[in-house]
């Protein structure tokens, strides 16, 4: 029997699964749409009910795939999407959100993120987000690819303290946020969403990760996900269009890594000893 998926609590008090589903590169080809929809539905069946997408992914195609996958199951899903910085003006964010809602075939987005910082003042984007929240179009808003200085600035603008999450690149080979951003967010109960948790597959060929995985009769991807599941306040959003891999991702929750093997992973993927620029893909 599988262990339940751990949860992360958002500032609103809503609990979401610490293991969700990403959709980067979905929606780019009609030939793969059926498999993408099947994999997302498989994840929902397994309790991975947080789905992350963005208007940028496949120029809206990813949101359309998600809309088809959640049809008839909307209330099961915690839906995350993101707005382009170029659309993050007072008026543009509202219009972009409306387009996303149409593609997703829903009346609300649970968490709406600014994809990265652009030229519009944070105060203006936050004002747009708060307006969308008041209108019931979104339930909460957050940011993506924000470092500590960006977060400090965000909290200084009106209603900036309502930020509900920060989505950043974080995995075994990209541990820079552990030096400052992760503890900063943990102290303020702002969840981190970890995108590309297996470094788009590049992590999977690392010899030490392979060796540790064999110890647990697991895949390297499962160990990489188990690493993130150990972190407080971190939500991991692996992407897969393969239903079997979705099952494997779900089973990463059952892996209990010993202190000795954590030490081996720390030696192979050292935590940061100084401030680093925020990694992005």
From TrEMBL:
This protein's name: Aldo/keto reductase
Active site: 57
Domain NADP-dependent oxidoreductase: 19-267
InterPro entries in the record: AKR, NAD(P)_OxRdtase_dom_sf, NADP_OxRdtase_dom
Site (Lowers pKa of active site Tyr) residue list: 82
Domain of life: Bacteria
Species name: Rhizobium hainanense
Organismal lineage: Bacteria, Pseudomonadati, Pseudomonadota, Alphaproteobacteria, Hyphomicrobiales
A GO MF term: oxidoreductase activity
Binding-site list for substrate: 115
């Amino acid at each position: 029997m599988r262990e339940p998926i751990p949860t992360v609590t958002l500032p609103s008090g809503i609990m979401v699964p610490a293991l969700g589903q990403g959709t980067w590169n979905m929606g780019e080809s009609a030939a793969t749409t059926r498999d993408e929809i099947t994999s997302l539905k498989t994840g929902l069946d397994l309790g991975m009910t947080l789905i992350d997408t963005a208007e940028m992914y496949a120029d809206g195609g990813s949101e359309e795939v998600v809309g088809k996958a959640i049809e008839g199951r909307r209330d099961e899903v915690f839906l995350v999407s993101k707005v382009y910085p170029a659309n993050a003006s007072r008026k543009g964010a509202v219009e972009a959100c409306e387009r996303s809602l149409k593609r997703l075939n829903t009346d609300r987005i649970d968490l709406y993120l600014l994809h990265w910082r652009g030229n519009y003042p944070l105060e203006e984007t936050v004002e747009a987000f708060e307006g969308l929240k008041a209108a019931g179009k979104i339930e909460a808003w957050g940011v993506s690819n924000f470092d500590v200085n960006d977060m400090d600035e965000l909290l200084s603008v009106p209603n900036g303290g309502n930020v509900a999450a920060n989505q950043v690149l974080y995995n075994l080979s990209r541990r820079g946020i552990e030096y400052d951003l992760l503890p900063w967010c943990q102290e303020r109960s702002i969840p981190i969403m970890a995108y590309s948790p297996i470094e788009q597959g590049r992590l999977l060929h690392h010899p030490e990760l392979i060796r540790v995985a064999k110890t647990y009769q697991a895949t390297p991807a499962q160990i990489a996900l188990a690493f993130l599941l150990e972190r407080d306040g971190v939500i991991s959003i692996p992407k897969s269009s393969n239903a079997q891999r979705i099952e494997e991702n779900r089973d990463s929750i059952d892996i209990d890594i010993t202190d000795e093997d954590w030490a081996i992973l720390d030696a192979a993927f050292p935590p940061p000893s100084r401030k680093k620029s925020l990694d992005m893909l």
